[in-house]
Amino acid sequence: MTQSTVEVLEELGPEFYRDPYPFYARLRERGPVVRVGLGPTPVWLVVGYTAARAALSDPRLVKDQGRMLRAAAATAGVEHLPVPEEKTFGEQVLTSHLLTMDPPDHTRLRTLVGKAFTMRRIQALRPRIEQVIGELLDAVAGRTELDLLEALAYPLPVAVLGELLGVPAAAQPRFKELCNALNFVGPEEMRQVGEDLAELVLTWVELRRTEPADDLLTELVRAHDLEDRLTLAELASMVFQVMSAGFGPTSHLIGNGVSALVRHPEQLEMVRADRSLVPAAVDEVARYDTTVHIAMPSVAAEPFELGGAPIAENDFVVVSPGAANRDPAYRADPDVFDIRGNTAGHLGFGHGIHHCLGTSLGKIQAEAAFTALLDRYERIELAVPAEELQHKVFPARLLEALPLRVG
């Protein structure tokens, strides 16, 4: 491939979904930043570690939606794209969140929602996390085969997010449905999810106005009602952000993690023998089989050079944390799963102002899940050949199921 080649990522076949890393390695041969087709617009895809880290913290790469529309119009060769109709409240919920914002709005909202993710609050959730894991594993006690995603990795973060947000008990079944929908529905269905979530959040807001509690919903209602620091749409969007960031990434950190450990039994036994290695195993999973392979796009506010590539004003730039974490320039043995290897500075949870807010909460859940599985089962292995595991890649690397044999 030459630098002028535009590789259309959507046209890659099943082999890419099974194992995308050889493809990323071939892209890196062209350079750390390469031109590819992603949707209707050519973008600069950042596959090198140093360039990815730089891009994720470069203020010249912005999320401004108006600039993105103008840039897309310029790429399409038209003066402007059709003006979208005024967004419904549900559409605002899906689009007015941290990943689509730049400072100062990003700073304002991240400061507000960051109150939910203080170490004090997260550590206080640990006993509840361990209790939920115990209950979920008790529910499948006696079974010698199970799908870990259905049994543990999906329901655990839903329960934890419900505690964090303060979801009323009566709304928890619907909350679970919406969390699952965020991970599995397409763009068209997602619009309805936004409308449903908006309606649900409005009922929660009214409840927390009359019955405040020590939870994120109460904090957000106070910021809206008393401090006038966010709009109602921003409030609902913060709930959406917490749900989307806290469910899928955590579920698949657990799923990808257990998958990696059982496919490397010597590493599994190393952790079993020394439980102090569990946190290192979680970070190695986040590096080795990163959940987010294609980050949210940015657009260049001015021309500059990134990894030797000439980024023009209004060019789209997309970072691939999954590719960057396997760059030999970052780690000499990037394709080796080694829980004792260097993971300092890995991009599995992002970097810069858009670093994942829920990193600590997700890691605590994964650590607790790994520990509980090792405590409960002397034998944990795949119930199918490794090559039969099915993945989805774009924008995240997700296992469709993780059948295990346990005992």
Present the secondary structure layout.
Layout: E1 7-8, H1 14-18, H2 21-30, E2 33-38, E3 41-46, H3 49-56, E4 61-62, H4 65-76, H5 89-95, H6 105-113, H7 119-139, E5 145-147, H8 148-153, H9 155-165, H10 172-184, H11 187-210, H12 216-225, H13 232-263, H14 265-273, H15 278-288, E6 298-300, E7 304-306, E8 309-311, E9 316-319, H16 321-324, H17 359-376, E10 380-382, E11 391-392, E12 398-399, E13 403-406
Parallel strand pairs: 1-2, 3-9
Antiparallel strand pairs: 2-3, 4-6, 5-13, 6-9, 7-8, 10-13, 11-12
Helix pairs in contact: 5-11, 5-13, 7-9, 7-17, 9-10, 9-13, 10-11, 10-13, 11-12, 11-13, 12-13, 13-15, 13-17, 15-17
Question: Strand order, biggest sheet?
Answer: 1-2-3-9-6-4
The CATH class is Mainly Alpha
Rg over C-alpha atoms, rounded to the nearest angstrom: 21 Å
According to CATH, the fold-level topology is Cytochrome p450
Order of helices and strands: EHHEEHEHHHHEHHHHHHHHEEEEHHEEEE
Q: What's the total helix number?
A: 17
Structural class: alpha+beta
Could you say which overall geometry the principal axes of the C-alpha atoms support? Answer: globular
Regions with little confidence, pLDDT below 50 for 5+ residues: 1-5
What's the count of strands? 13
The biggest beta sheet is recorded as:
6 strands, mixed
Mean pLDDT over the full residue set: 87
From the N-terminal CA to the C-terminal CA, the straight-line distance is 48 Å
What would CATH call the architecture? Orthogonal Bundle
Strand content: 5-15%
**The named CATH superfamily:** Cytochrome P450
The number of distinct structural domains comes to 1
Q: Specify the helix fraction band.
A: 40-55%
Query: What oligomeric assembly is this protein in?
Result: single chain
